[in-house]
Amino acid sequence: MLGNEFRKGLVSDLVKLVGKNQFSAGGASGGGAASGQEAAPGSKGASGEDAASGEEGAVREPALVLGIETSCDETSAAVVAGGIRILSNIIASQVDLHRKYGGVVPEIASRKHLETFIPCVNEALEQAGVGMRDLDAVAVTCGPGLAGALLVGVTGGKALAYGAGLDMVGVNHLEGHIYANFLDAGPGPALRGEHTQQARQGPAPEFPLVCLVVSGGHTDLILMKGHGSYEVLGRTRDDAAGEAFDKVARLLGLGYPGGPLVDSLAQKGDPDAVALPKAYLEEGSLDTSFSGLKTAVAHVVRQGSFSPEDIAASFQKAVASVLADKAFAAVRRTGARVLALAGGVSANSELRRTMLSSGERLGVAVRIPPPRLCTDNAAMVACAGYHGLVRGLRSGWDLNALPNLAVGDESIYLGAGGI
Ligand SMILES: Nc1ncnc2c1ncn2[C@@H]1O[C@H](COP(=O)(O)OP(=O)(O)OP(=O)(O)O)[C@@H](O)[C@H]1O
Ligand SMILES: [Mg+2]
Fold this sequence. Notes:
The protein is of the alpha/beta class. It has 2 domains: about 5-185 and about 375-410, Nucleotidyltransferase, domain 5; about 210-370, ATPase, nucleotide binding domain (Nucleotidyltransferase, domain 5). The protein has helices spanning about 5-20, 95-100, 105-130, 145-165, 175-180, 240-250, 260-265, 290-305, 310-335, 350-360, 370-375, 380-390, and strands at about 65-70, 75-80, 85-95, 135-145, 165-170, 210-215, 220-225, 230-235, 340, 365. The protein has a 5-stranded mixed sheet, sandwiched between helices. A 5-stranded mixed sheet has the order 8-7-6-9-10, sandwiched between helices. Helix 9 (about 310-335) runs parallel beside helix 10. The longest helix has 27 residues, at about 310-335. The two termini are about 20 Å apart. The structure holds adenosine-5'-triphosphate and magnesium ion (MG). Adenosine-5'-triphosphate binds near residues 242, 260, 344 and 375. The site of magnesium ion has 5 residues, from helix 5.
């Protein structure tokens, strides 16, 4: 775990960045960003004000938010206009670094974030054609995730916001994944300067919506009744869906991360070749379990009577059909209008196909972000942060890394009985 020396090092690097690069007049005064509840110098907003009012403290439209994401093994910085239009979304993946260990090594992840944080922020600003002073706020993932990795983003995000006199809001990483569904998934980054126009509004998903979050660490079915209003309907009782993909990849002798490799191997296999168990648990349960499926795959691999392609395709089909059955059951039970997918596993081709075809058959609108927005990225964090900011949410300067932060935990916001 990285301590105070580490934090001081990062803050001093950020102050250097202030001096030579993006900040303009007065922006460098925030070297001591790490503690206290006072407003940042020259802050455009204070906590709790009504953003829609147009008074001082409101978020102007289209607000420019710098998103920061460092919860696991991707360092990412993004600039998003009006909570929808992605002006830049820089992602520095550490996959090559962790591959030889077969998984993410937390200490290595933290140290790599420290190296890549400032270059990512610089590139995100440059690609968006803005400086820190053009922004309205900084949104940073503060949990859940790896403590040391989160700490880099949280410390860096606070220092940047304080130095530039911006509001800052902590974002729950899983809420970030959900908000990938609210971004304009248009053709790519906007042209330089385009952010000065009103952001192009794609149709936002309608509430209430059921969101299936399927990622490396989570398999959650969440009812979202409105912005920031969540009810967890079900979750995995053992492995997360992404974890199951990664473990099956290991059983098949594929590399890391396993999900995309299983997905591409499965393209050449027969999804009906191997009969694999599907765990539905008790009648009516919206929880999931993948450990039995993983054990069955291990058994089939040991037997050696099926090709890796057929095993991969059959495994993928088993996961997708259980997830689809549970997700559409949640939609029926809640009367939701939309089913949205989120998290890295929603990049899976079989899951996408199954969800879209079931949605069509059952008359349910299904939203799935493009694959590049399913895995960890800072644009989704900026989007989630934006929707918090317009509801008047801000975080304090003592915001910390919260490895076990739960969806909907409002203690990360000022005036919410927390930080
Ligand atoms: N095409 C794919 N098919 C299946 N799984 C995939 C695919 N692409 C990525 N994944 C899986 O998604 C996971 C990574 O997703 P994500 O980045 O959302 O997880 P995380 O950030 O590590 O975990 P969490 O979001 O729960 O903290 C990995 O387990 C990876 O194998
Ligand atoms: Mg994630």
